[in-house]
Amino acid sequence: MLAACGHGFQAGGDVILPSACRALLDGQFKGSLYNLYGPAEITTACTAHEATAEHAQSDVIPIGLPLDGVSVRVLSPELEPVATGGHR
């Protein structure tokens, strides 16, 4: 997915604010903007999401879907699987 983006900007390491997306996407930048996520334990990205102008109008930019060859699981503090869309 990322290799095909050509001219792109990848953001990671912290939450990307919708206001930052708006500033970039509403300006002269004409490439793709990707929000990357990866916990410190793996020292690299494991999910990616292409942020669009529509996403920049929302309250949260998604962290995206797992990259090829990656499995992602959301666990509770007790290390039990959390249901899709679930929370504590």
TrEMBL record:
GO terms for cellular component: cytoplasm. GO terms for biological process: amino acid activation for nonribosomal peptide biosynthetic process; secondary metabolite biosynthetic process. Residues 11-85 form the AMP-dependent synthetase/ligase domain. One of its GO terms (molecular function) is phosphopantetheine binding. This is AMP-dependent synthetase/ligase domain-containing protein. The lineage of its organism: Bacteria, Bacillati, Actinomycetota, Actinomycetes, Kitasatosporales.
